[in-house]
Amino acid sequence: MAHTHSSADHNIHDSHLHGDGEFSHPAPLSMLFTIFGILVLLTLLTVYQSTLNLGDMEIWLSLFIATIKAALVILFFMHMLWDKPFNAILFISTLIFVALFLGFTLLDAHAYKDTIEPRDTLKESLPPALADSVK
Q: 85 in a domain, yes or no?
């Protein structure tokens, strides 16, 4: 049985933004390449800031840059910018809370420096009471 299309059916298909077999994308490619360039620049900024001695601010700056990069990926490459605003707010707020959690956790890491960094010898890694018994 042959299937025929009326002119009304063709008008419905003609109203789509893309033809058969073509890829429809909500963002123009120029915008995506611009965002990609910004992500590369932010990555280079992260590498550069790792060479600076910023103390405790280094982790905050790294997390701030990583949060911006994650937000750009979510908004543009995962198309959250064109999705419902609630989804974008949910993802961005989650990233902010994870960055804060990691930041506060890592701020305390220097207090445990002696237990985190490996010792050169077995004698140095033992408590003082046991270190005297080792040759």
A: yes
Range of the domain at 93: 28-117
pLDDT recorded at residue 107: 81
Q: φ and ψ at 131, to 5 degrees?
A: -65, -30
- Asked whether residue 83 is assigned to any structural domain, the reply reads yes
User: Tens digit of pLDDT for each residue in 6-30?
Assistant: 555 444 444 445 555 565 667 788 8
How far is residue 33's CA from residue 109's CA, in Å, rounded to a whole number? 38
Mind listing the pLDDT tens digit for each residue in 41-98?
Answer: 999 999 999 899 888 888 889 989 998 998 899 888 888 878 888 887 887 788 789 8
Judge contact between 40 and 60, C-beta under 8 A. no
d(CA 84, CA 65): 25
Whether 88 is in a domain gets the answer yes
Distance CA 123, CA 85 (A): 59
**Residue 56 domain-assigned (yes or no):** yes
- The domain tally of the chain equals 1
